Amino acid sequence: MNKEVIIIGLGWVGQANALALIKDEFIVHGIDIRTVNNIYKDPDFNKIKISDAGSFTSDAPKIICVNALNDEHGKQDLSAVFSALKTARQIGGGPVILRSTVLPTKFKNLDFDLFVPEFLHELHAIEEARKPSLLVIGSKKSADNLPQFLLHWKKSAKRVFLGTPEEAAFIKYLSNIWNALRISHVNEMGNIMRRRGMNHEKVLDFFFERKPYLKYGREFSGHCLPKDALAFLTEFNEEAKLISAMHESNEDHKRYVKEHHPDVEAQYFRINEA
């Protein structure tokens, strides 16, 4: 049984994957063009075998966790993803698993085997990687011969979806945009009440019970929600009218709280704020 895995991109997603696999007794090699710091302050960080891409060859599965950024106009920029995929093929054979968030229209020229988007929250990312609430696998051909680590995650996942990369990508964007939409709706309703002198939190908390993404607070932010929502809106433009309104509402709320209520709490805490 091959329990070796290579992770390309050791940011917060890549490290969460690496540490999750190490805790489940996999051997993890890590590659990153940047200096890698122990983001999670986890003692198992030192077990990641960090190497230069050209220093070894291996047919182990390669997991791509580099960030897909947006350009100045909000258009998705996949240059880092292309580079990481090229590196993966240069290291050796074996399946290449893409975990970077990619728009469903952008897979045509990407050289990978499986698209497995992540649904991680920064404060609980390691445990969520070990026991996924959603394991979504988009395969170009067949998902019959999954690598060992995916079979392992499949056993512990609450729900598993097998489909095409495009279907998997839409699930990823459904998740992120749904979270952003809920935040925007609650904040907008809260502001309408707040401007009229009402106890907005009393009303909102009764109805929404202070569940995640359903509490009045700051605008949606972080690594994923603004970037992914804007990339989706830029790509689908006239078809995404609700998302366009959501983006406008979020920007209005950002200005409103900065001017009138700068003490409003964040929607969630990132790992460096915990």
Architecture overview:
The chain has 274 residues and is α/β, with parallel strands linked by helices. The protein folds into two domains: 4-163, Rossmann fold; 171-273, N-(1-d-carboxylethyl)-l-norvaline Dehydrogenase, domain 2, CATH 1.10.1040. It is 41% helix and 13% strand. It contains eight helices and ten strands. The strands form two sheets. Strands 3-2-1-4-7-8-9-10 form an eight-stranded mixed sheet, with helices on both faces. A two-stranded antiparallel ribbon has the order 5-6. A hairpin with a 5-residue loop joins strand 5 and strand 6. The radius of gyration is 20 Å and the shape is elongated. The model is unreliable at 269-274 (pLDDT under 50). It holds the Pfam family UDPG_MGDP_dh. This is UDP-glucose/GDP-mannose dehydrogenase dimerisation domain-containing protein. Residues 166-251 form the UDP-glucose/GDP-mannose dehydrogenase dimerisation domain. One of its GO terms (molecular function) is oxidoreductase activity, acting on the CH-OH group of donors, NAD or NADP as acceptor.
Give the SSE layout.
Layout: E1 4-8, H1 12-23, E2 27-31, E3 49-50, E4 62-64, E5 69-70, E6 76-77, H2 79-91, E7 96-98, E8 114-115, H3 125-130, E9 134-139, H4 148-156, E10 159-163, H5 165-194, H6 200-208, H7 225-236, H8 241-260
Parallel strand pairs: 1-2, 1-4, 2-3, 4-7, 7-8, 9-10
Antiparallel strand pairs: 5-6, 8-9
Helix pairs in contact: 5-7, 5-8, 7-8
Pfam families: UDPG_MGDP_dh (PF00984)
Protein name: UDP-glucose/GDP-mannose dehydrogenase dimerisation domain-containing protein
GO molecular function: NAD binding; oxidoreductase activity, acting on the CH-OH group of donors, NAD or NADP as acceptor
